[in-house]
């Protein structure tokens, strides 16, 4: 039996790895060619597009290549002027379900992460304090109705006013446990309804439960003011950014900033500036609003905020948006129409952390943020095929 030396064995393994990589490259090339063969046929019928640096791809080809197109953001920003931040729920689009009486959880009707509309069932609660509050309202409403039926002069105006105030006070208590006006009125004709409340969603959004709230179970009694769940509309989020004292920027409400979360860029608007420096962090808080309908971020995520800078003019793009052509020219792809992309030369002004500040394109242009490499490959292939007809 032959004994193979360790050196020969390692050499054999290297050869096997090289062959495996070559095989993978051939397979990948075949897949890409198959995905984009339709674009090559389209260019055979229109050579003008090829020579002008354009390529046409079907929706299916764009999906297979993972091409993502977004609006260019960030005019007049610097990669050097950045501050950390954290995403928060928009307080105007968020509501906490926290009844102001001691309650017993009967059952949850909505689950965590569920999308709800106005009036959808969230949970059912009950308990002695809720039953007492409902009974007190019914008695106060009946007393008010009795007094209102009396003729003028039989009871004084003071008594009438007191009865009306007492009924409204009892109604306000029921509203504090999230009973709707329709549910409150129904108590007057439904004695069996006393003792529990079916809490309906007061707004559209997603149901969110904290780790502590996930521990609550049916039959558990919770004290007044305990938060049972939250409904958030995440179409808009806030960013709380921490501005160090050394940044003496004239940043005020209404100005634009660029928010970066894991390489996704969105233009945000400054809502307010704290004008108060924390004695612990030595920073001033800036509150920013961002449109979250296309990014689908969540409260709690960390962000990087790019602040305005008069020194640099350009737009921010990630690594995946750039590609090189002959002569080491940096270029990006701009979407002209739904399925047509043009290659545009840009100058890289700054680079940091996977982001680049570039000039040569206008803010608002529709840029290919992911998948530029595949479009560049298809464009190069089309050019090669054209000159070899």
From TrEMBL:
The keyword Membrane applies. GO terms for molecular function: transition metal ion binding. The chain crosses the membrane at residues 18-42. GO terms for cellular component: outer membrane-bounded periplasmic space. InterPro entries: MFP_Cation_Efflux. One of its GO terms (biological process) is copper ion export. Keywords: Membrane, Transmembrane, Transmembrane helix, Transport. PANTHER family: CATION EFFLUX SYSTEM PROTEIN CUSB. This is Multidrug efflux pump subunit AcrA (Membrane-fusion protein). It comes from Aliidiomarina maris.
